[in-house]
TrEMBL record:
Organism: Actinomadura vinacea
UniProt keyword annotations, A-Z: Membrane, Transmembrane, Transmembrane helix, Transport
Domain of life from the UniProt record: Bacteria
Flavoprotein among keywords: no
PROSITE patterns assigned: MFS (PS50850)
Protein name per its UniProtKB record: Major facilitator superfamily (MFS) profile domain-containing protein
Transmembrane segment boundaries: 20-41, 47-68, 80-104, 110-131
Major place of residence: membrane
Pfam families according to UniProt: Sugar_tr
Signal peptide start-end: none
Domain Major facilitator superfamily (MFS) profile, first and last residues per copy: 1-134
Membrane topology field: Multi-pass membrane protein
Amino acid sequence: MFLVGATLCALTIDFVGRRIWFTAALGGSAIFLFLLAGSGLDAPSDLMVFGSGAYFFAAAAAIGVYLYTPELYPTRIRAIGVGAATAWLRLASMISPLIIGTFIACGLHWVFAVFGGIAVLVAVIVPLFAIETKGEVLEYLSP
């Protein structure tokens, strides 16, 4: 699913724009995560279908972030900006297993519900605050 989501992102993000793309990808991921949390996790097929759907949309958003992040920094500090963003990503990757472990103690469905809630929150924030870079000259966006 990652390959399909990543390919779809690469082929369409320049046509639809970054804000719309991230909002749709995060919203789609949230829907599948909530379906997974609500399924009761009784059947392996639920995990396969809903988990794959969530992963498809999450992959589409993740690949888009690697395109979008460098566009936000001026050329002269782009490497530093992307490096700092990647450092935050690595820090979150280290902390997230501790957070997930806490929610697993409450029930596995809470893990998926929390991730779905975060995806909804970000899907609401992106259209309000994200800078649209579609069709813009990067030197004018961040001189």
